[in-house]
Design brief:
single chain; mainly alpha; Cytochrome C Oxidase, Chain A; 2 domains; two-stranded antiparallel ribbon; 23 helices; 65% helix; 1% strand; globular
C-alpha cells in the first residue's frame, strides 16, 4: 500500500471514529425516560444510550467492513486472475501486481463509499449539535437521517471524483476537454471509477442493472414463497409489505438503469459519434445511482415500510423511518434519470454522422429520443411528490393533510403524471430493440420505418394524457373518468402501428432463430397479451372490479416483460460480441429463453385466474375458501423456474466473457454502423467521422447502397 493511501485511510478512520464517539456522547445529560423514547405528539424519535452505542458500532462496522472488503476483493481478483492465466497457459505478468490493496483503495467506488460515510457522519454530528444548542432533544431520527443522507450523497460524489473537474473550473484551473483515465492503472479499474467514456459508463449501467434486477427478483422470491400456501409461514405482515414494496421499486430502478445502459453504450456508436455530448455529466449521472440505491435499501434496516411502491399518503406521511429512506433513494435515482436524458437528447440531435438525417437514424435511436423526452419532462413530478411528503414528515407542511388544507388526491395526480409515462420509459427502448433486430434476422427491410419512428414520438406525447385511469376508484371527479378512459384506449393506436410493422417485416422473411431472435419473438407475444389485457383496466365499468387485483399484477408484468425484460435479454445477447469481442453459448442462451418463457406464462396465467376470482394484490395472506391455493403454488413454482433461468443467463455471460469463442467482426451480417468497426470498439469510436450514404434496413434490397462504407466487415444481403 502506498504511503499516501495509508495516511488517507488513517485520517478518514480518525474523523469517523471521533465523530461517532462525539455523537454517542451528545445528549447523555438528557437521558429520556421510558415514555419519551417515542413521542407521538412531536413525532420525535429519541435515541437511548443503547441506541447511541449501536450507532457508534454501526459506523465502526461500516469502516472495518469496507476496508476488509477492499482487501478481500484485491486478494480474490488477484487469485482468480493468476489461476485463469495459468489455466490458459499464459505467462504471468512481470512487474508489480495488477491487483493490490493500494489499487483497490484507489478505486473511485471505494473512495466514494468512504466519502459517503464521512459525509453522513458529519451530517449527523451537525444536526445533533444544532439541536443541542437550540435546547431540543439532540436526537430526532427523521431530520438526523435526512441531513445525513444529503451529506452522505455529497460526500460520495466528492470521494468518487464526480465533481473534481467542475470544482477546478470554478477556481480557474484548466482541464482536458475530455476526462481521461489513469494510463498507469490496470484497465479493469476504469469500471469502478469515474470515467467519461460512454462505453465504460454503458457497462457500468448494465452490470448495475443486472445486480438490481437480481436483488429485486430475490425479494419477490421471498414473498412469493410465503404466498405458496395460505397462512403466514415465515414472514410477518410488515416484512411482507417491505419486501413487496422494495421488489417493485428496485425492479423499476433496475429497468431505468438498464435503459441507461443501452442508451449510453449504443446511441453514440449507432449515430457515428465519438462520445456523448457531455461526458462528465454522463459519468455524474451514473455515480448518482450507488448512493441512491444504498438509500433505497437502507429502508430495510430502518424499520421497513408498508406503503407499497407507490408511497401513498396519508400512510406514508405517518409511516416509520424506512419510508423516508425510500423517498430519498428514489429522488436521487430520478435525478440521475433526468440528467442522463438531457445528454441523450443533445447527443442525438447534435452529433449524428454526416449524411445521417433523422430519416436515416436507427429506430433504437428514435426510441431513446422519445424516451428521453419523457424522462426529462416527467421525472420531476415523482421527485416533487416524494419531496412534498418528506417535507410534510419533517417540517409539518400539510400538502396532503386534509386537516391542514391539503389534498390526498393531489399526490396521486402528481405520482401518476410521471408513473404512467414511466411505463413508456420502460417499454419504448424495448420496442425499439424489437424493431432494430427483426430486420437483421428476417433479412428484410423494416416495414413502415417512418411510421414506426413517428409512433414512438406519438406514444411519448399521448402518454401524458392517460395517467388518471389509475385513479378510477380513488374518488376523483366522475367527470374526469370518461375523457381519461377514451385517451387510454386511443394510445393503443401508435402501439398497434408497431405490431403491424413487425408482422410486415417478418412476412416472407428468411428468418433465423438465434437466441436474440427468440427473445424478440417472445417479447412480441408477451407484450401483445399485455396490451390485450390492458383495455379492461382502461374501461371504467370493468376497472371498478379488476382494480387492485392480481389481474392488474399479471397485466403489468406482461407489459414489462414483453416491453422491456425480453427485449433487454435480446439486446444483451445481440450486442454481447460487440461489448466483449466473444460469442455467448448459444445452447445455454436457448435454454435460458425457454425456461424463462415457460416460467413466466405459468406465473401470469395463474395471476390472471386469481385476479378474476377476487385475489387482492399487496396482501400477505388469503382466505383458503377462495380456492386459489393451487394457483398460488403454481405461480411460486413458475417464479423459481424464472430464477433458475436467470442464473443460467448470468453463468453464460460470465463464462463466455472469460472463455468464449472470439467473435467475428460482424457475426449478424448487420448493416448498422456499430458493426462496421472492431469489437470491442476502440477508445474513440471512429478514426474519422463516418459518412452515411444509404438506409439502415435495406436488407435483401437489390443494388441497395451500403448504409455506411468503412470497409471492415461485410454486412451481407
Amino acid at each position: 500500500m502506498k504511503l499516501q493511501h495509508l495516511i488517507s485511510l488513517v485520517i478518514i478512520v480518525g474523523v469517523l471514529l471521533g465523530g461517532a464517539y462525539i455523537t454517542s456522547l451528545v445528549g447523555q445529560e438528557q437521558t429520556p425516560g421510558a415514555d419519551d423514547v417515542l413521542s407521538p405528539e412531536a413525532s420525535v424519535y429519541v435515541a437511548t444510550p443503547d441506541q447511541r452505542l449501536t450507532l457508534f458500532l454501526i459506523i465502526v462496522g461500516v469502516i472495518v467492513a469496507t476496508f476488509g472488503a477492499a482487501v478481500v476483493l484485491a486478494l480474490v481478483v488477484s487469485y482468480l486472475d493468476k489461476a485463469y492465466r495459468q489455466a490458459q497457459g499464459e505467462p504471468l505478468p512481470v512487474g508489480p501486481p495488477t491487483v493490490t490493496p493500494g489499487i483497490i483503495l484507489s478505486l473511485g467506488l471505494i473512495r466514494g463509499l468512504f466519502g459517503g460515510v464521512v459525509g453522513a457522519g458529519l451530517g449527523i454530528a451537525l444536526v445533533v449539535f444544532l439541536r443541542s444548542t437550540a435546547g431540543l432533544q439532540p436526537w430526532d431520527g427523521p431530520p438526523v437521517s435526512a441531513v445525513a443522507s444529503v451529506f452522505g450523497l455529497f460526500g460520495f460524489l466528492i470521494g468518487v471524483g464526480a465533481v473534481t473537474d467542475w470544482a477546478k473550473w470554478a477556481v480557474g484551473i484548466p482541464t482536458d476537454a475530455h476526462p481521461h483515465h489513469d494510463p498507469d492503472a490496470p484497465g479493469w479499474t476504469r469500471y469502478f471509477s469515474f470515467d467519461g467514456n460512454h462505453k465504460i459508463i454503458g457497462v457500468q449501467y448494465g452490470v448495475t442493472s443486472i445486480i438490481l434486477l437480481l436483488v429485486g427478483g430475490l425479494f419477490s422470491m421471498f414473498f412469493r414463497t410465503e404466498l405458496a400456501q395460505p397462512g403466514l409461514q415465515f414472514l410477518e405482515t410488515q416484512g411482507y409489505n417491505t419486501l413487496m414494496s422494495l421488489h417493485g421499486m428496485v425492479m423499476i430502478g433496475g429497468i431505468l438503469v438498464g435503459v441507461g445502459a443501452m442508451a449510453n453504450y449504443l446511441v453514440p456508436l449507432m449515430i457515428g459519434a465519438q462520445d456523448m455530448a457531455f461526458p462528465r455529466l454522463n459519468a455524474f449521472s451514473y455515480w448518482l445511482l450507488p448512493p441512491g440505491t444504498i438509500l433505497l435499501l437502507l429502508s430495510l434496516v430502518t424499520g421497513g415500510f408498508d406503503t407499497g411502491w407507490t408511497g401513498y399518503p396519508p400512510l406514508s406521511a405517518q409511516a416509520n423511518l424506512g419510508v423516508q429512506f425510500f423517498f430519498l433513494g428514489v429522488y436521487v435515482i430520478g435525478l440521475s434519470s433526468i440528467l442522463g436524458s438531457l445528454n441523450i437528447i443533445v447527443t442525438t440531435l447534435m452529433m449524428r454522422a454526416p449524411g445521417m438525417s433523422l430519416w436515416r437514424m436507427p429506430i433504437f435511436a428514435w426510441s431513446m429520443l422519445a424516451t428521453s423526452i419523457i424522462q426529462l419532462t416527467a421525472t420531476q413530478f415523482i421527485g416533487l411528490s416524494f419531496l412534498m411528503v418528506t417535507f410534510q414528515r419533517l417540517l409539518g407542511m400539510g400538502f396532503f393533510d386534509p386537516t391542514n388544507g391539503g389534498d390526498v388526491l393531489l399526490f396521486q395526480h402528481l405520482f401518476w403524471f410521471y408513473s404512467h409515462p414511466a411505463v413508456y420509459v420502460f417499454v419504448l427502448p424495448g420496442l425499439g430493440i424489437i424493431s432494430e433486430l427483426l430486420p437483421v434476422f428476417a433479412r428484410k427491410p423494416l416495414f413502415g420505418y417512418r411510421w414506426v419512428a413517428l409512433s414512438s414520438m406519438a406514444i411519448a406525447i399521448m402518454g401524458f394524457l392517460v395517467w388518471a385511469h389509475h385513479m378510477f376508484t380513488s374518488g376523483m371527479s366522475p367527470s374526469l373518468r370518461i375523457p381519461f378512459m377514451i385517451s387510454t384506449l386511443f394510445i393503443a393506436v401508435p402501439t398497434g402501428v408497431k405490431f403491424f410493422s413487425w408482422l410486415g417485416t417478418m412476412w416472407g422473411g428468411k428468418m433465423t432463430y438465434e437466441t436474440p431472435m427468440l427473445f424478440v419473438l417472445g417479447a412480441f407475444v408477451i407484450f401483445l397479451l399485455g396490451g390485450l389485457s390492458g383495455p379492461p383496466n382502461g374501461l371504467v365499468v370493468t376497472d371498478l372490479y379488476l382494480h387492485d387485483t392480481y389481474w392488474v399484477v399479471a397485466h403489468f408484468h406482461h407489459t414489462i416483460f414483453g416491453g422491456y425484460v425480453f427485449p433487454f435479454m435480446a439486446a444483451i445477447y445481440y450486442w454481447f460480441p460487440k461489448v466483449t469481442g466473444k460469442m455467448y453459448d448459444e445452447r445455454l442462451g436457448k435454454v435460458h429463453f425457454w425456461m424463462m418463457t415457460i416460467g413466466f406464462f405459468v406465473v401470469t396465467m395463474a395471476m390472471f385466474g386469481m385476479g378474476l376470482q377476487g385475489m387482492r394484490r399487496r396482501i400477505a395472506d388469503y382466505d383458503p375458501a377462495l380456492g386459489i391455493d393451487g394457483l398460488h403454488l403454481a405461480a411460486t413454482l413458475g417464479g423459481y423456474v424464472i430464477a433458475l433461468s436467470v442464473l443460467i443467463f448470468v453463468v453464460n455471460l460470465w463464462v463466455s466473457a472469460r472463455r468464449g469463442v472470439v467473435a467475428s467482426l460482424n457475426p449478424w451480417r448487420s448493416r448498422a454502423l456499430e458493426w462496421q468497426i472492431a469489437s470491442p470498439p476502440p477508445e474513440m469510436n471512429y478514426d474519422e467521422p463516418p459518412l452515411v450514404e444509404g438506409d439502415p434496413y435495406d436488407y435483401g434490397v437489390p443494388n441497395a447502397p451500403a448504409y455506411v462504407n468503412l470497409g471492415l466487415a461485410p454486412s451481407g444481403d
